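User: For this week's homework, look closely at the record that follows, marking any run of repeated tokens, and judge whether sequence predicts the tokens.
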Amino acid sequence: MLLHPTSLPGAGGIGELGQEARNWVDFLAAAGQRLWQVMPLGPTGYGDSPYQCFSAFAGNPYLIDTTALVAAGWLEEAALAELAELPRDRVDFGAIYQRKVALLAEAAGRFLASPEGSEHGPFGAFCRANAAWLDDYALFMALKEEAGGSGWGDWPETLRRRESDALAAASARLAPGVARHKVWQYWFAEQWRVLRAYAKGRGVRVIGDMPIFVALDSADVWANPELFVLDAAGRPTVVAGVPPDYFSATGQRWGNPLYRWDVMRARGFAWWTERLRATLELVDIVRVDHFRGFAAYWEIPAEEPTAVRGRWVDAPGRELFEALRAGLGELPIIAEDLGVITPDVEALRDEFALPGMKVLQFAFGGDAHDPYLPHNYVKNCVVYTGTHDNDTTLGWYRSAPERERDFVRRYLARPDDNIAWEFVRLALASIADLAVFPLQDLLGLGSEGRMNTPGKAVGNWSWRFIWADVPHWLAPQLAALAETYGRMASDEPSEGPSDTAYRQSSL
């Protein structure tokens, strides 16, 4: 099932890594599900997108379980009353920023004043083990706070250029803020580690998500500007995106800086290796977003307001994945190979035996030869009813052209009055090695349950569920379907070409 932790229920205004997350894992186990897919877990900023994080290595402090902080003595229980006033059916990120961050800061202050905040204990060991990224990230975040949230491109030149004297002075001046951000990362890492161990004990593994690009306003770019196509002032001259496609007539101008692949290659792709290593310490399998960008990526002049004008530029994907495999072993990766897919993308994916993605909502706009129709699948793929970028299945079906809806009915040879579950059944019955569906589809939600609309700058990522929305029959019905189609945890995986790297190492 696909569900981002921010969508978990609870009284804290946003999903947290505590008891409700364990309840969710219990639900997955009862429903016969072996995999929980999440989106990137990093700290989010303006726009609240988990695909535009302040760090490719850090965790999102918003997810920290505040009840655990009360139990540890870092917060008074009465402090949680302010969070309990926030909505339970959606995330109000503005209110979370105003209220929860203040509580986390109070808790971190108490922690740092205690013996447990000493550099000689587990916290200090965590900071030393993660110093390669944590030191830069914590200072970056403290500097952003000092600058009123402005991006690092607007900071004083000495800090933009990371002059040693300026960094030393900032580290001393902002020491409390730097320490606070390190504490939050320690808490996130520990709580996620405990939750993931709990999931593993229930037979549930985690699929994570890694965007191909990182945000311009991130510790990654600030600390490693030589790895990105930037001008002397630290501003991108070209940016990432995709040309016009299914989602948008003007394409998607993401705005992320592009990599200097020549520098990456000269350094043996070390930054990428460490990034993937860090991600695999958090999850069991990684869905690599926009995989086609490793074969060729869409380069947009930075001054262009849309993605219409741009060009395809070749990327050294084969060299990169060879280096990743050499450094990390077999790669438990799912390739998000949607969009404009050319033979070079397919060749790169297949050379490393990476499963690609099939989305059922894309299957009915063509004819019987459409690659997203289940009878055209190979086993080494992952089928989705829809992703976080799609409308819910019910919302999509309601707005689809009649020709597509007619094709759906003929293909299913069943009524369409329960279309989301029919798509779930179709995914489970396919030969795809893995079948994934958003919780919204299982709840039969329409467009009100949509998580993200690509190209829409605001109003995304806020959907949450409450347990009252989950009918009592949902888990046993889903378990029965999983058993019917041989997808229970007790079922032996089939032998043959589908025994891919991600199965060998993770399932």
